[in-house]
Amino acid sequence: xxxxxxxxxxxxxxxxxxxxxxxxxxxxxxxxxxxxxxxxxxxxxxxxxxxxxxxxxxxxxxxxxxxxxxxxxxxxxxxxxxxxxxxxxxxxxxxxxxxxxxxxxxxxxxxxxxxxxxxxxxxxxxxxxxxxxxxxxxxxxxxxxxxxxxxxxxxxxxxxxxxxxxxxxxxxxxxxxxxxxxxxxxxxxxxxxxxxxxxxxxxxxxxxxxxxxxxxxxxxxxxxxxxxxxxxxxxxxxxxxxxxxxxxxxxxxxxxxxxxxxxxxxxxxxxxxxxxxxxxxxxxxxxxxxxxxxxxxxxxxxxxxxxxxxxxxxxxxxxxxxxxxxxxxxxxxxxxxxxxxxxxxxxxxxxxxxxxxxxxxxxxxxxxxxxxxxxxxxxxxxxxxxxxxxxxxxxxxxxxxxxxxxxxxxxxxxxxxxxxxxxxxxxxxxxxxxxxxxxxxxxxxxxxxxxxxxxxxxxxxxxxxxxxxxxxxxxxxxxxxxxxxxxxxxxxxxxxxxxxxxxxxxxxxxxxxxxxxxxxxxxxxxxxxxxxxxxxxxxxxxxxxxxxxxxxxxxxxxxxxxxxxxxxxxxxxxxxxxxxxxxxxxxxxxxxxxxxxxxxxxxxxxxxxxxxxxxxxxxxxxxxxxxxxxxxxxxxxxxxxxxxxxxxxxxxxxxxxxxxxxxxxxxxxxxxxxxxxxxxxxxxxxxxxxxxxxxxxxxxxxxxxxxxxxxxxxxxxxxxxxxxxxxxxxxxxxxxxxxxxxxxxxxxxxxxxxxxxxxxxxxxxxxxxxxxxxxxxxxxxxxxxxxxxxxxxxxxxxxxxxxxxxxxxxxxxxxxxxxxxxxxxxxxxxxxxxxxxxxxxxxxxxxxxxxxxxxxx
Length: 857
Fold this sequence. Notes:
Layout: E1 7-10, E2 22-25, E3 28-31, E4 62-65, E5 69-73, E6 77-79, E7 84-87, E8 90-94, E9 102-104, E10 112-117, E11 120-124, E12 131-135, E13 139-144, E14 147-151, E15 157-160, E16 163-168, E17 170-174, E18 176-180, E19 187-191, E20 194-198, E21 204-207, E22 214-218, E23 225-228, H1 231-243, E24 246-248, E25 251-254, H2 264-272, E26 279-284, E27 292-297, E28 303-306, E29 311-314, E30 319-323, E31 329-336, E32 342-347, E33 351-353, H3 354-360, E34 371-379, E35 385-387, E36 391-396, E37 404-408, H4 416-420, E38 423-424, H5 426-429, E39 433-436, E40 439-442, E41 452-455, E42 459-464, E43 472-482, E44 491-498, E45 507-512, E46 517-521, E47 534-539, H6 540-544, E48 553-560, E49 568-579, H7 601-609, E50 616-619, E51 628-632, E52 641-642, E53 652-654, E54 660-661, E55 670-672, E56 678-681, E57 692-701, E58 712-716, E59 726-731, E60 742-751, E61 756-761, E62 764-769, E63 784-787, E64 796-803, H8 809-817, E65 822-825, H9 844-852
Parallel strand pairs: 1-58, 2-4, 3-5, 4-7, 5-8, 6-9, 7-10, 8-11, 9-12, 10-13, 11-14, 12-15, 13-16, 14-17, 15-18, 16-19, 17-20, 18-21, 19-22, 22-24, 25-26, 29-36
Antiparallel strand pairs: 23-27, 26-27, 28-30, 30-33, 31-32, 31-34, 34-35, 34-36, 37-49, 38-43, 39-42, 40-41, 42-49, 43-48, 44-47, 44-49, 45-46, 45-48, 50-65, 51-64, 52-53, 53-56, 54-55, 55-64, 56-63, 57-60, 57-64, 58-59, 60-61, 61-62
Helix pairs in contact: 1-2
């Protein structure tokens, strides 16, 4: 696979340190009693005299209990500044005193992260012990696919003083789960899935709430309840929610009864005004002297509309979806805004196609640039009404006047499984095709973990026509018939590019309406061997001549092979769209400055705004070296260490010692970049960087193999929990790579304050965006990673510099060419389209060209 681009990704990995000893249980039964610390049961034991106190209080060691372990303790275990991680084991801890069986994070400032995974854990209290599992001081516990029994004592409970209790697909048995918000950081329960059985009627309690945030997040379970101590604290809870101190994620409050003369209904309504979503809490009457309780019940009212309420630019070929916890079926209604709702139908599924909405309104497709309202009423199993839904709305995109309507851009598929859920290849259509969505794998901070895959937005179509039927096809089957003629378009367009070393054969597209199929063969003789992207435009009339109903399109097939001869190779497919032929680039009037495919007074106004603008010189200016954070010359000849020449001591490493090569900038050495190369830059380089950043480097690659060179730059937060969060992404495209052979300098600059992000190629601005306002998350970073998604063995990198400032273009020119160096910055097309004749100046010649095309449309 040869994906012709090099992508620069900056990933920040959270730093961590472990000061305690780690003990690993090697399986089998055992205890944590007395001197058994030295009994040889720990495979990696390193302390000669581990703690032997019978209470096991204040233990500062980490414990890993691996598969097959059967570990018991008859005394309580209190961990401070350490963690316990149990995987595939059985763990039992009991307390013989009126104290918790297990305490995590005993000492302040000693954050811990523990886990129970695929295990059975029993924690047993004693006597009048309340909290049997006690989490405090930012002690986090993940419970995943585990059975956790909290038992013993009169009222054993889990108490989260400070930290996060995460429950995934597990079974929890206890009396109470208690949240104590009266701490500095607040406490969370994140219940994703599973079952929680709590015996106390006040099952989840909120104590004091204090002035901190006390949160219940995630899915939450139907059995969870929130307790307040009296009627005034019920009112207090409402105030806390209002002020954001107490946050109940995705919940809604239902009005109930009064308590001791207090108007609980008022409290409920105040909560309901602040918190919205699917599930909701209901406040009950516990009687005189009792405790008020908020408990979760299933929401029978529909919630979670998609598209979101008020959404704009909605694709009319999509779906509407919704959710409910208690409904057996749904009545869906729709209307153009301002009209009465009409019934679309009754559905058991939680989605309806836009096609069905349009049919209910006697339309072939929902109208362009039009707002629609819709409602979902929930029904019970007998067909009775449960709840009348809220009225939601969305606005359909302006597809009628848009230059293109996207059918497929391939960005929604994170992996091949997702692609094959929509497209068919040889695994199901009995041809020689294998399809995939190549992507860039961003590394995680765990060497054993799979990185986050960011799709590149293209489909790879491999063809092997060495046997019958001597063709390879990829099929896109439409769930609802395509209404192409109603979109004001008359061309089917797609981008194609051949892989290296392909066999020459036919490239074709088939369009079917279920009864008739039209086949169009690409007219280019080198369609399967040309290694540059090329638009292929197919006229609707050519499809209709073969009998296809373009208001009932059911499938598109992209095929390679003539059905007779053997052939093999790779094709890349991108951006399948419907276009108006009059709005294709080859049909655009020369005098059209504002890209509306018309020449009129608006083009004249834009020309006037850019009058006498011309190409300009940029003379090198020295940057302030105080902002140079790291400088890697890549002059090494062997090993994995990379010296930092900035003087700041940020020496880096590479993940292989075999990629050093000669022939770098200035005849020095350089680094080979292949599909697995990583440059690991240490913690501190990005620390404190939030507003301005510049990355400068040289790249050498053959144009034939790398026609786009550096055409996309992402800045990503590389913390393992945040791999999908990009600071910003900037892309640019070129049609001809011949001018990019050999060594080329690139600089990427971001300035949050001005919103600008730039890509400079050899000092010239080639990509620019003025709305890049996401902060650069550089604090507390552990590693900065330069990675590439190319397998081209000829790409080299040299002279990598990182600045904590947004360098000006003149300073970039200096970094690239040195003092006194000068470049000419073209104004077309990046800065203006008003230079119609591409002379480098907006002048009377451009005005004359507008005159020649005047009032053309």
